[in-house]
What does this fold into?
Amino acid sequence: MSDQSTDAGWFAGHTADDDLRAAIRTGTADAPTDWPTAAVNAGFADDTDDYYATLQEATIEAAHDAVAERQGADDQQLLHAVRAMDDATRTANELAERCHKWASTQFDDVDSGIDGARDVASREPTDPVEERVVSLADRIDDLAAEADELRGFIKRLAPEVALNLAEMAGPVLAARLISLAGGLDSLAKKPSGTVQVLGAEDALFAHLAGRGSSPKHGIIYTHPAVSGTRPEDRGSAARALAGKLTIAARIDHYSGDFRPEIHDELDDRMATIRARADDGDEESEQ
Amino acid sequence: MSDLPDGIQRREFDGQTRLATRGDPVYGEPTDGGWRCWDAGRSKLGAMLEGGMGIDLSSGEGVLYLGAASGTTVSHVADFAGPTYAVEFAPRPMADLLDVAEARNNLFPLLKDARKPDTYSHVVESDLDLLVQDVATRGQARVAVDNARFLGDNGQLLLAIKARSEDVTADPETVFDSVCAELTEAYKITDRQRLDPSHDDHLGVVARKR
It folds into this structure.
């Protein structure tokens, strides 16, 4: 038996003196079995009382660690991570454009964009100019890879900072909302009408100055509940989504519980809004 | 009224007869000579017992408790039961649950998702006598069916179904019927009863593993 085996208990491959927290937290098994007896037979514990004492110590320590990790998860770190990801992506794209123009003077068949830069980076330079072009392409490849790493980091961190918000908005949009508001604390204090137009400040102030109509949505446009709804109903969809996102942010900030019902309420509301499109079609057919 | 095991008694608190178990107080409940009152208004399992449902409990039995939250109810279960595995998904209530667990050497807290039993099958033992479930998630029947693997033959399920978690708009009775129908995949239902008025739109279900 080894740690990786999916029919092994959490204690497999360990002695009772090992640090067992990771084994509790990350292990899996396809099916339970009589673990106390298995542990005694494997020499892990002297008897079942001894096993239960070790198990309790390990489960409490593992849960302590997991709680500390999740509660220490800091909205400011998430804010920096999402801004860094956007900067890295934008800069990589700008440099890729420069690299494409330059590399086209040195090589044939250079594609544009990050993929083009990656292709250039894999070439063997033969003179000092090519050396610079390939080196630049190398940096672009690294920068794009860092942006991907940051995205993965945000996906892991966002549910720890704001479980309900990340579940409802998706981790990246949750991070962007926290970033635009300046923190989970200030997002939780914003009225839903503000959350609805976060990221559309230019349009909002143009409207307030008397130019243009009021924006229906800001960054929440990227949520499928808004972008997947027909244009006539997007205002309603954005209003409904912003309302639920505000509630989710408040639960995350003030309580920290996971509340599945708010996600179901959003689904119900969206179903009602989308049903208007179907009703409309039927009417026009009649 | 169901027979109570040694670890649970009916005792007088403020002139009323209420359930009680023996252990360290957890949530400011009244105590009487080492016995702590089990508040049915704060515990769905407490309400199921007070409501006289056909529940068969015995001292020292092995328990898996899904949706332990801050440990209000699971603390009473651990007072009379044997090894008690408490699964909770959210970190903040888990912090309270850890205090409850530290005062009871038979309580094992697990910060896990009850919808993914694979992630704790390497810790929770098989052949348990009792599965208690109080999770507010859509698919409560699915969770109970997937976790039947931890119960021994004829093992007992005590389930509190929250109608609003399944469908906020549907009639609660319709929701209860459909959840109960799905449960029969792994269980035989022996009793069901609404937990009103202490817990609105909740149904208590007692079942045996098939």
User: Anything to note?
Assistant: The interface with chain B takes residues 8-10, 23-25, 27-36, 52-53, 55-56, 59-60, 62-64, 66-67, 70-71, 163, 255-261, 264-265, 268 of chain A (CB under 8 Å). Confidence is low (pLDDT under 50) at residues 1-5, 282-286 of chain A.
